[in-house]
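Troubleshooting log. The previous structure file for this entry was overwritten by mistake, so regenerating from the original sequence record. Sequence copied from the archived sheet and checked twice against the printout by T.R.
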Amino acid sequence: MSEYPQLDKLVDGIRRRSDPAFADLYYLIGDALASFAFSMLRDHRAAEDAVQQAFLELVKAAPTIKGDGRSLRAWLFRSVRYTCLDEIRRRKRHPETPTETLPEQSTLIDDSPLGLDPDLEAALAQLTERQRALLTLRHVLELSGAEVAAAMEMKRPAAYAALARAERRLRSLLEGIESHAGAASLPMTDTEDLG
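Regenerated output below.
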């Protein structure tokens, strides 16, 4: 039996470009994709745009999608990741003007968009995009090691090593923060889980 039976049921509908299948897929995985995009971009609107772009790409690629629900899920996370990396490159080429960087009112209200401890959020903000992506996929969205590797297009041992480095870096940053409340919420990844 598949790990994602609901997604498995949607794969054929996605290949046929069925509107209800896309709506159901968005309902099942849209929030997780948006959280992942936010972890990379740190901007709600840009994260939502990245998810929409991934779904547009899926509509184009739908007939060629291979595999089961797990493969479809990994494809979507990869697509969101590529879109986020493109946005990060765009931001570096065209920095925002000061008036564009003012936070929206909804951002001011929502201190921790991923639902994490503020100290943990602050430490995550100091990591590279790749490190944040690895940690978010594994610990916030609770993807398996194999799914993390697939979403990041890495071999499992490389994904494990990169995740372990990201965890060590995050722990080091958290040690420098007065409150250690966030440190307890990040267990180290077990190598058996990635196999």
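Residues 105-112, 179-184 have pLDDT under 50 and may be disordered. Archived copy saved in two places this time.
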